[in-house]
Amino acid sequence: MGKPLRRPSMSAIESNISIRLLQLFIGGTAANLTKPFFAALLATGIGASSSGIALSLAAALAVVAGLYGGGQSDTLSRKTVMLWGESMRILGGSLMFLGFLHADRLYYLAAFGFAFHAIGSSYGRSAGDALLFDSLNELNRKFVMQAHNWIWNLTVLLGYLLGGIFLEGREAPFFFFLFLVSIFDFALIKLFIKDRRQPRKFTRSDWSLKAIPISLLREDRTFRIYLLGSTCQLVVEVGMLSVLAVYCVTMGVTISVAGYGFYGLKAFGILIFFNALVILAGTPLYSPISKFISNRIEISCGLTLMLGGFGGLLIVNDGIWIAGFVMLFSLGEIVFKPSRNLLLYHIAPEKNRGAYVALNGMAYRVATMIGPLLLIAFGIVGPLFTAVLAMLLILISLSLFVSVFHKVSLQ
C-alpha cells in the first residue's frame, strides 16, 4: 500500500498545469518536426518493408510501455514515471541524432533510437496526463482541456509545416533539437513538478503482467462504453482523413487560394492546414462561451457537427464545399474533444487515474489500425456509401456517450 495522498497547494497545481502545457508545446513541436517524416527517411536507407517492420515493432512496444507507465504512476509516483520516460526519450533522441550525424548514415541505429523515443514518450505520457487531471478543479478544468487541445493543434501545424519544408537535408540538427528538448523536459520535471504521491523504488512486481491494468476493462462497464464510443469517433477521424486524401486525387479536387489553384494532394494539404487554422482561431472564441454549456451538451453538439462534416466530405467535389465541411467537423472538434477528456476525468477514480488514462490511449492505437478499413470501403463501395458508414459510426459513438451520461454525474 502506498502512503496517503497529500492535498496539493494551489501554487503547486498552477505550476504543474503550466509545466505540462509548456512541455506539450515544446515537446509536441519537436516531435511533429521529425517523427512523422521518419518512416520516409528510414525507408530510403533500409527499404520500405524493413522500415515498416521496425516502426510496427516500436509502436507495439510503445503500447505496452504506456500501459505499464499508467499503472505504475498510480502505485509509484507520477514524477518517477515521467523522469524515467524522459530518460528513454533522451537516449532515443541521441541515437537518432548519431544515426544521421555523418554522410554514411546508420539507419538501424536511428531505428533503435526511434523505438526508445517512442517507448519513453508512451511510458511517461500517461503519468503526465494523469498529473494534469490531478490538477483540475471545477474552476479550471474546461479551460485547461481547451488549452491542451489548442496547443496540440498548434504543434501539429508548426511541426508538419516547418518539418515538411526544412527537414530534408538537415536531419541531424533536427534530431539534435529533439534530444535537447528531452533534456529540457527532464530538468523541468525534476526541478518543478510537484507530485502528490510519495515516490518509492521499483520492485519486481511492478513489471509483472498483472501490473498491466487490463482488468479495469472487465471491472468498469461505464469505462468500456466510453472507450468504445471514443474509438468509433476516432476511427472516423483517422480513416476519413486518409479517404479524403485519395478522394482529392481521384476526383481532381481543386482549392483556389489568392488566385492560385491547388489540386490533388496539394489541395488535401491546404484542407488539413485549414482544419488546424479553424481550431486555432475558433477555440479562443468558443472558450468564454463554453463555461455556460454542460459537458453532455458539448459532446452531443460536437458529434452532431462531426456527423454533418464527415458525412458531407465525399458527396461533393467542389473545393469550396469540401472546405465548408472541413470547417464543420473542425468546429465539432473544438466543442467535442475537451469535453470528451473531461468525461474521462469524471469516470476515472483518483486512485487508478494513471491506469485509466493509459487504457484510454489505446483507443487511438486501435483507431489507427481500424481506420484504414474506411479506405478499403471507399475502394469497394465508393464515396457515398463510405460517407454513410462514417455517419453510422458517429451515430453509434453518440449513442454510447449518451449511455455514459446516464451513469456519470456531469457538471
Tell me about this structure.
The protein is mainly alpha-helical and 411 residues long. It folds into two domains: 10-192, Growth Hormone, Chain: A (Up-down Bundle); 217-405, MFS general substrate transporter like domains (Growth Hormone, Chain: A, Up-down Bundle). Helix content is 78%, strand content 2%. Strands 1-2 form a two-stranded antiparallel sheet. A hairpin with a 2-residue loop joins strand 1 and strand 2 (260-263). The radius of gyration is 21 Å and the shape is globular. The two termini are 32 Å apart.
Largest sheet: 2 strands, antiparallel
What is the CATH topology classification name of the largest domain?
A: Growth Hormone, Chain: A
Question: What is the second-level CATH architecture of the largest domain?
Answer: Up-down Bundle
Residues in β-strands, percent:
under 5%
Helix content: over 70%
Cα separation of the termini: 32 Å
When the domains are counted, the total is 2
Which structural class matches the secondary elements? mainly alpha
Q: Which regions have little confidence, pLDDT < 50, spanning 5+ residues?
A: none
Look at the structure and give the mean pLDDT.
90
Helical segment count: 14
Instruction: Report the radius of gyration as a whole number of Å.
Output: 21 Å
The CATH class name of the largest domain reads Mainly Alpha
Spatial order of the strands forming the largest sheet? 1-2
Encode the helix/strand succession as letters.
Answer: HHHHHHHHHEEHHHHH
The CATH superfamily label of the largest domain reads: MFS general substrate transporter like domains
Q: Looking at the structure, what is the overall shape?
A: globular
DSSP summary, beta strand count? 2
